[in-house]
């Protein structure tokens, strides 16, 4: 867990892209692919799993795409990480690996504690936090060009 997979990083980037660039309209997967350079083969499967998990909502139709299922301040990075981890492995990676007493009683519990600490930190980071970081670093948001103030 200390080293994130490509799929995990792509999933976090995709959700951040949707949160940062949506502007009230669904974001199409090809837009995410264009902006982030994420291969579509990773993206579509992951986006569908995020929809099933209640993080995203899929919108059908020619102007369809994906949007956040909740406000971006109510979605944590930890939630996305858990979804991707469940996709990558349904089993405990240590379950079938033999271990000595030191490994089973000291090292694995230590590793489990570290994983819990990391997940607690990721649960404390929301996509609103990441959007604010993106804005502060000067990354332009396409949401601004999609806003329409005509009444």
Q: What is the tally of beta strands?
A: 2
Give the C-alpha Rg: 18 Å
Secondary-structure element string: HHHEEHHHH
Beta-strand portion reads 5-15%
> Main beta sheet: strand number and arrangement?
2 strands, antiparallel
The largest beta-sheet arranges its strands as 1-2
Number of helices: 7
Share of helix among residues?
A: 55-70%
What would your notes on this structure say?
- By secondary structure, this protein is mostly helical.
- It contains seven helices and two strands; from the N terminus they run αααββαααα.
- A two-stranded antiparallel ribbon has the order 1-2.
- Strand 1 and strand 2 form a beta hairpin.
- Helix 1 packs across helix 3, helix 1 packs across helix 6 and helix 4 (about 75-90) crosses helix 5.
- The longest helix has 23 residues, at about 100-125.
- The chain is elongated, with a radius of gyration of 18 Å.
- The model has no long low-confidence stretch (mean pLDDT about 90).
């Amino acid at each position: 867990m200390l080293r994130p997979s490509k799929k995990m990083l792509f999933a976090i980037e995709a959700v951040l892209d949707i949160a940062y660039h949506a502007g009230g309209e669904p974001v199409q997967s090809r837009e995410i692919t264009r902006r982030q350079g994420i291969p579509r083969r990773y993206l579509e499967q992951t986006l569908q799993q995020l929809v099933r998990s209640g993080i995203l909502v899929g919108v059908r139709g020619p102007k369809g795409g994906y949007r956040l299922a909740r406000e971006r301040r109510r979605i944590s990075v930890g939630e996305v990480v858990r979804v991707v981890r469940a996709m990558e492995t349904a089993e405990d990676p240590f379950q079938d690996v033999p271990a000595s007493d030191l490994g089973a009683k000291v090292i694995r519990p230590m590793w489990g504690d570290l994983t819990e600490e990391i997940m607690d930190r990721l649960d404390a980071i929301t996509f609103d936090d990441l959007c604010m970081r993106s804005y502060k670093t000067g990354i332009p948001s396409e949401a601004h060009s999609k806003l329409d103030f005509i009444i």
